[in-house]
Amino acid sequence: MPERQHHIAFIVNNYPPKVGGLEQHVFALAKSLVKLGVKVTVVALGRDIGDWDDDGLNVVRLRATPMVAGVISWPLPGTTMRLTRYLRSIGVTHVSTHTRFFPMSVVGVRAARRLKVPSIHTEHGSDYVRGVSPLVGMASNTVDRTLGRYVLRTATKVLAISESAQAFVQQLSGRRAAVFHNAIDVAAFTGVEPELPAEKLVFLGRIVPGKGWERALAVASKVLPERPGASMHFIGDGAERASLEAAIAPLPFRDRIHVHGYLRSPEICRILSGAILLNPTRLAEGFQTTLLEAVAAGAAVVSTPVTAAKYLAERAPSVVVVDDDDDAPWIRATGRLLADGWAPAPAEFIASFDWAERGLEYLAVLDEQ
Question: Which domains does the chain show, CATH number per domain?
Answer without folding.
Answer: 7-183+354-368 (3.40.50.2000), 186-351 (3.40.50.2000)
